[in-house]
Write a structure and sequence with these properties.
about 15% strand, 6-stranded parallel β-sheet, globular, alpha/beta, about 250 residues
Length: about 250
């Protein structure tokens, strides 16, 4: 008798990153799941939209559903970082039969001010990703992590600089118009929210608000981290796998 197929885990990236984001966790995840990665528009070779305002959180979620359909996947666990987490919240609220369990890392259901995101989109369209690279690295990693892991940080920066400006800008505009707070009450998938204690972009209070809005959700804060799954890969992998193993 053949072994039963492993369940599927969909992985969603944060703005400006590629599958490198999951490099430390992927081997552990692959022992328990079939992994389905996807890239944001204009990231990692994915196509950009025809126009800057052609992306929304709903369209990202719909794209994930289409990808699952293409692979014959009826239901999957989902884990997303930042913008990938935003898409995960939309999926769990709007396609609850498709998401068996949910992991949300360093993300937010509402991330104002909208004008800041619009200004960032305009800057990138005018001057390219180099205009925001330094600030992005500072949001993703603590100074001590940058000092201790220069090669890894350089790889993240190189991936960021390779993102298509139109795709990046479209994602900024999608976040500018995003407000998932009312969707949280519709999420039925068991949910683990993870925040980085020192994350300046989506600080722990954002994770706490998500956990408070989703019935039964748990919230874990990782000390000394901005981008928690990169700064503390083993701790985050263990927490995610523990959550999924108990809820799928």
């Amino acid at each position: 008798m053949s072994e039963p197929a492993l369940p599927v885990l969909v992985l969603g990236n944060s703005l400006g990153t590629t599958r490198l984001l999951w490099r430390a966790q992927a081997p552990a995840f692959a022992e328990h799941f079939r992994l389905l990665h996807y890239d944001l528009p204009g990231h990692g070779g994915a196509a950009s939209p025809a126009m800057a305002d052609g992306v929304s959180i709903a369209s990202l979620g719909a794209g994930v559903l289409g990808l699952m359909d293409d692979h014959g996947i009826d239901q999957a666990a989902y884990c997303g970082v930042s913008m990938g987490g935003m898409a995960g919240m939309w999926l769990a609220a709007n396609a609850p039969d498709r998401i068996s369990s949910l992991g949300l890392i360093c993300t937010s259901a509402y991330l104002p001010p909208a004008q800041g995101w619009r200004a960032r989109a305009e800057l990138v369209l005018a001057d390219g990703l180099a205009a925001v690279a330094g600030q992005s690295i500072g949001r993703w990693f603590t100074p001590s992590f940058i000092a201790s892991s220069p090669e890894l940080v350089a790889s993240f920066k190189a991936d960021l600089l390779a993102v298509d400006p139109l795709g990046y800008a479209s994602c900024c505009l999608a976040i500018a118009q995003m407000d998932l707070r009312a969707d949280l009450a519709s999420v039925r998938a068991p949910t683990l929210v993870i925040s980085g204690a020192d994350d300046p972009a989506t600080p722990p209070e954002h994770g706490a608000a998500i956990a408070a809005g989703i019935s039964g959700a748990r919230h874990l804060v990782v000390d000394g981290a901005h981008l928690a799954n990169v700064a503390s890969p083993a701790k985050v992998a263990s927490a995610i796998l523990g959550h999924f193993s108990a809820t799928i």
